[in-house]
Please model this.
Amino acid sequence: MNKEIINIVDQIILKHGKTVNQVIPILQAIQNEFNFLPEEALEYVCKNTKISAARIYGVSTFYSQFRHKPVGKHIIKICVGTACHVKGAMQVYNAYLRELNIVDENENTDPNGLFTVEKVACLGCCTIAPVVQIDNITYGHLTTDNVSDTLIDFQSAKNNPKQTYDGIGTETENLQGEIRLGLGSCCVASGSSLVKDELEGIIANSKINVNVKQVGCVGICNQVPMLEIHKPGKSPIFYTKIKAEEVSGVIRKHFKPVNLLNRLKSDFFNYFEGIVFNEIPKSTSRYESDRRDTPVSEFLNAQINIATEYRGAIKPTDLEEYKDLGGFSAFKKCVTQLSPKEIIATIKSSGLKGRGGAGFLTGLKWELVEKEISDKKYVICNGDEGDPGAFMDRMLLESYPFRVIEGMLIAAYSVGASEGLFYIRAEYPLAVRRINEALLLCKAEGLIGERIFNSDFSFNLEMFEGAGAFVCGEETALIASVEGNRGMPKVRPPFPAHQGLWRKPTLVNNTETYSLISWIVRNGADAFSNIGSENSKGTKVFALAGKINRGGLIEVPMGISVKTIVEEIGGGIPNGKKFKAVQIGGPSGGCIPASLANISIDFESLNEAGAMMGSGGLIVLDEDDCMVDIAKYFISFTQNQSCGKCTFCRIGTTRMLDILTKISSGNGKLADLDLLERLAKSTKKGSLCGLGRTAPNPVLSSLTHFREEYEAHIDGKCPTGKCTEMITYTITNDCNGCTKCAQKCPSDAIETRPYYLHEIDTEKCIKCDICKQVCPIDAVITI
Amino acid sequence: MIKLTIDGIKISVAEGTTVHTAAKQLGVEIPTMCYLEGAGFHNHPACMVCLVKDKSSGKLLPSCALPAVNNMNITTRDEEVMNARKEALELLMSDHVGDCDAPCRLGCPAYMNIPLMNRLIAKGNFQKAISIVKEEIALPHILGYICPAPCEKVCRRNEIDYSVQICQLKKFVAATDLQNNRIYFPKKDPASAKKVAVIGSGPAGLASAFYLLRDGHSCTIYDKNEMAGGSLRYQQMDKPLPPEVLDAEIEYLKSYGVDFKLNSYINQNVVNAFRKNGFDAIILATGANTVSNLLIDALDLSENGMNVNPDTFETSVVGVFACGSAVRTLKMAVRSVAQGKAAAHSVTTFLNGNTPEKGKRIFNSKFGKLAEEEFDEYLKEAPNRRNLTEKYTGLKSYTIENAKAEADQCMHCDCRKMNNCLLRIHSDTYQIDRRNFLLGKRNNVSKFFKQDMIVYEPEKCIKCSLCVEISARKKEEIGFTHIGRGFDVKIKAPFGKSIDEALTSTAIECANACPTGAISLIE
Model:
């Protein structure tokens, strides 16, 4: 056996131990070393730990994070989340395969062994969709056309690596102001680290005394990178989609070296404040957009910030700042002044319902755990946000780690737990890093540990990284995963509150739920229950994306209408298209058609309409989106993510997908709709866990609201032209013979004929859509 | 104690009892496949065939893993529950690539257990082989000469090289038996003291007489001709039937106890006449074109033949049955033989005081033709591919060695668990439509062997996980595990190990626990 492998694996075992529940961390460590799981490494683990061959193989083939084959030097992860899907992710995926000469999709590495192409469920960067991650560089707004550019850019970026940001020392006296720059995942993906580098350089080389602050997600994720200029006594100014080379101009406009006369400064600033949105030159960064004039205020005004309190204003891992703003005061009050029962009573009377999707009363859940008598109890933060099209948890964990921790600490004190876990999906490396940093700071500060605040309350909190399985968002599957098993759900009862992790009473709450707790304790139950609708209290964080002008993360009062979100906060549909529907709740939710746009967003109304709150993905669809395609998209997601345990989910979702594939390829019959509906209903009823029980929702809701679209497919027509098997590409007489399409066509289906009408050879056409995208006069159409 | 209500009946059970077990205590059987009673496996419901309804929430829950809780109110068999179970079975069946009965047996009008016969021949157990043949076919020697052998046309070996020579093998078994010192006579049921008259001694009449005797009745065959045999003797056959072959099998029937009354014309008072003579039932097996001669009182006739209930062969007169070409002209003698058998079973039911019913054929899973890449998998059960020139012409009889070698070509297309497969049994009970969800491409079948012990056919697996649990609990070093997830999950040995290495001490236990034919014992 390979000595090097043995040495590495020995060290990994030494670090993680030999117990069965360490199987996932050990596998992750091995993959970190080798980029895949070498078989001999796994066999060595089996021989030298208590982990059996059956377990290591069963677990490593369950989670999609793990690879059993060597991969290319670099990994291209193509996000196929909902927002990316509606913006053409599959065409982008196919373009990468073509570009890299990968013929067999299963053999997903290029012949030179340089790149491996993988689809990923969701990178959580929905607002800049479609998104691709090459190693640690993220590219947004992909088209089939700029796929090759990303490969070139990646190669050059690789040759000029940038340092990671570690803050700028500033004099605290004579501060001229503060510059804030968001460093959430979307921001970084959109180039904010380049902006930051530039900013650092300029400030270091000038005599400007200004505080540059790295803040969490600013929410307006499709307008980033966003630079905020804060000056004493002035309203802040926002620069959206700023590019590195534009930074110096902006700085010079706002700040003069301290020792210069600043007689004209205020006039200057007034002048700039008025024109700032129009003044920045048109951005030509990694993605294009002609929308620089976004009224940020409109986006922010209809929102209420509780989970996202101090959004864009605090540095994620600055414990002192968090404390200065009242952080951990709620926790301290709980431990030193309140009894667990009093806290639970407050949470109950606030009306808070779990934000993970099902909407169970949080206070009641706490009470159930609190009542259990046991030598040990656990609290778990469910951060396994796997819904394609949702990134609320990622952003909360990245931007407000202390707030989530504080919520968990209060919960732990209330239910009598002594140990806790963050379960965060591995696709969120930044969230994992920030939480780990925050945990270290809290432990150093004594907020986590023995006899906290000199009370009897002791609590330890650790991190567990998920390994890529949507079903692990289901609490019993999550627990199975922590125990070192395949993420297979169990029947409830017994509920985790009664028998959870290691068969001990366990409280599992969603990230967002925890992040609301400290606010409720500080401001009182009434303050929270005064917000929202009759049965759904408080606020809800949504990830707004899709066909919308202003996408991003929003926190709105429950009961707000779909219309308000789409039109006011989101600024309507781009390109003058018609609003068709919103998909809410991801693969467990459904579609709300435009005709029902006045519906109030709360747990009850959404359920009535056949949708579901889910965890909060909100994807806006326009007239170009095909509802059969959307239903098929979600079913193929759940089908792929099913754990495979129970018959209805394992085979039922597969058969639903088969029927939808049949319909979307033009081979459907009217009887298939009845069969589909029947199967959807029985899968909803008969599945074991929430995944299967909600998986049919996208199908059922689209059948309810858009049945005529299904019928059109059965009549042989996809009204929106999305179902590629039912359309052909053709060029109209408007063609001016510019030859762009012919140059770009990857399959030689268009002959180059300058100044003549071009034609598409439908035999050769692979429907990659590139001709349609590059045609400057929209002469390429689908019929 | 936990108090709950199941189907409206209150019951107290010990804490920790599942609803499935509680129902059982009430005598309510809930079907299940993935649950192994007494194994103590904790909560791994997979098949979802044991669904029951929790009336308070309206939810369907798997009873095998559902702990009984105070004040629970459970319904085990309303329409929704039954439909859900049925649909679960239909879904499982849509992903179950396997045959219960082999295609040859289903292709045989008499439903003879051909694969079993073949295996017994291959082992040289001719005595047992003839008993299997006679279960379904009363005249195997005769049919060995004249049967067009529809079984061979659907034999899977046709796709690979050519069919197993089933008909010849059957003939050989029958001939061997008749030459034996101890000819095989099936054990008769206790005497019923009932008398049955069979009119006509063609293939249908002879066959019915054989099974009537076996069922414990006494039987007299009447025939207008001076020699028995009917169409077998007096009609031109497509293939020649030597008279001595016919005579030998008629002699056999005589020895078994059939009373032949030849040269007996019957008249229109036949029913009354027989009743007067103490016959309790009559089977009319008078052959084709006999209707005009049979102006039997009150008998419902049509242009072509007698009108009978096609499921039970009852005529319009109580106690009178009709079969064979008398009802509708049959081209294949094997069909007449099959009908004679079925009519005899109806008569027995009638004589027992019950209403005859359609002979029920249990549910069958089928998967159609073998794909080329599956040939080798099936050939694992047979020695090799044959040279086409070796094909047996059928003119001369086999030697014993020839017969054994030929029977050995049979690939065991039938399922080893055909009699105790829970998927088959429940599918039959719930009368599922196996085609309902037959969408998408089927997977290729494969077979893995642990020498002389078990065979694993992954495409029959329903992912119940029992073998995974058993091999883990009994600390198999390799064991079976789940590979992958979702629809593509496979149950296999880790690290690409063979089944031989994977299942050692637990092999037989796994085969016995497997609810389908996925893991089965090699007989």
